[in-house]
TrEMBL record, chains A, B:
The keyword Transcription regulation applies. It comes from Glycomyces buryatensis. One of its GO terms (molecular function) is DNA-binding transcription factor activity. This is LacI family transcriptional regulator. The lineage of its organism: Bacteria, Bacillati, Actinomycetota, Actinomycetes, Glycomycetales. Residues 7-61 form the HTH lacI-type domain. The keyword DNA-binding applies.
Amino acid sequence: MAGPRGVTIAEVAARAGVAASTVSYVLSGKRSISPATARRVMDAVAELGYHPHAGARSLASRRAGVVAMMLPLRDGMHLPVLMQFASGAVTEARRADQDVLLMTADEGPAGLARVAASAIVDGLILMDVEVRDPRVETLRRLGLPSVLIGFPADAEGLTCVDLDFTAAGRVCADYLVERGCRDIALLGASEAVYARRTGFAERVREGFLGGPAGRAHAEVWPCPDDAVSVQRTVKELLVARPELTGLAVHNEPAVGHVMHALADAGKRVGEDFHVVVIGPDEVAERVHPHLPSVLVPAERLAEIAVRHLMRKLDGEDVPDSTLVEPQLTTR
Amino acid sequence: MAGPRGVTIAEVAARAGVAASTVSYVLSGKRSISPATARRVMDAVAELGYHPHAGARSLASRRAGVVAMMLPLRDGMHLPVLMQFASGAVTEARRADQDVLLMTADEGPAGLARVAASAIVDGLILMDVEVRDPRVETLRRLGLPSVLIGFPADAEGLTCVDLDFTAAGRVCADYLVERGCRDIALLGASEAVYARRTGFAERVREGFLGGPAGRAHAEVWPCPDDAVSVQRTVKELLVARPELTGLAVHNEPAVGHVMHALADAGKRVGEDFHVVVIGPDEVAERVHPHLPSVLVPAERLAEIAVRHLMRKLDGEDVPDSTLVEPQLTTR
DNA sequence: TGTCGTTGTCGAAGCGCTTCGACTTTGCAG
DNA sequence: CTGCAAAGTCGAAGCGCTTCGACAACGACA
């Protein structure tokens, strides 16, 4: 249908018997148009299958209708969560008639500068922002509207969205205490994760330690994620704290191993011992018995991030910082 | 640095003391330029941090420098594989100085028409193409350069890339036979997957059944992927074929359950019984003992797909059909 | 010395769209 | 019946880039 050169606004205008500018105004709604004219234009648009040329539009209007999403591609990131995030963002962006350009974090600050200078996108979403993130400074300098997932050390003037990890830690502790546990522990993330984004891990720790507030004894144990280390850590933990009856695991790959280690130690999870996971549903459901869990609500975060970005593109104000309440799923 | 309006080619030209067209030619290399001039231009580009305005470029040159990637977002897709694919594609595209626009399959054929008509992308990569895929017809009509991952029923005139699933089935059968198994079975995908993309599942089956070629008895058992069904299916299988000593599992979520069922039945995997997985490494490594496996080489496929697309954009010929040899990883 | 390719550079003409100012109509108050 | 604002529409001027044809300048060749 669409010829090799595509349908232009001029053809639509001719068919509707109006000027090209009128077609433009009908489509954008930036000037009032009589219903009769609007109708004829819309008909012509439909009959011709007209879609504005994205390049021409962006050139003339200084709006590309595209936002960039920069994904981290380091090892250690949980891929399914990333994917959920990406798809959530695309779905939400399309709702606002925007497209999404995918970038990877290894393009770094230079990548940001590139897309900004070439005006190929109107805004940016940066995922998995670290505490000390080299992209943040560039971002600030470029002045492109942006939303970050995660909180850098200096969030001044930036829009950030994330799960409220402090609350997540607290929710886990509360859950265990409510099950009657008087001695609980948090099996933390692997060292690599801690090293990179201390903020995130720190916040879970604080929430977990602060949650019981005297109702139980709480400790935090960092833990590597290979089978052997997990087995050893759990064993040491149980020796060090023989009265322990509750465990929160904030370390996705380790969950399965933890369950084995507990079984080996004679703990019956769900009966005389309680475990709660901070991680994706699949992780909590892969083991037996299924565990209660607090997940990172990727789609939700993506939705919020995109929505905030859209509002910034429209010149509206959005909160600097948005923390999503964690949700405990019992099973 | 970059003002709100960005650096234009005119400013670069002024700084280098040449015409704008000369700058353009230096950057594109489409006409010969004296080394001295080229040098001055490149210096000006660097000093000013110039990046061509993407919209203007696409308007004038009819080339957007962007390709679209349409990802499936159905349940049942293995998310990490998708993510690997996406990141592989972006990395490879950037190598050719192209960007990647992310779309989701739920935009359907209309989405393809949209991006084609708006000239926002130069080409398309469609992931996870099904045997009867409604997008294929539209794709053909649009005439946009494209590459598919997977094979639709009528691949006439299309460029398709995929893992050679027939070979994958054969490799698994061979592996088991070489371990001395004389009676083997393939525990197939869940029904939903079969229903959707028979081609894929069929090919594994054929390869698996044809592999032994008289050296062993081979059967294929389809299998749902919840724990209970897997337990039952494995039990039935072992009753039906008491001499069975080799099993290939082409059903990611089921692998863990299969191992439990086999242990319950007293089979010692790796000793008197052999199991091989068709699926991602993590799946094969999550169980004990680690299993040999054939994976879907997502990054590899993405790389090939992008490379082929780039060549098509340059008007070169590429093979209609590319099958990637499966690789068995022993552990 | 005149002619002809080469090589390197320039100016101008768009690409298809948005947007601004101006113009024509229409409705209504005076 | 006149005057004026509001409503609806148009034409033209770019947005920043690529590309085409033209044109100097320069050797090489006859």
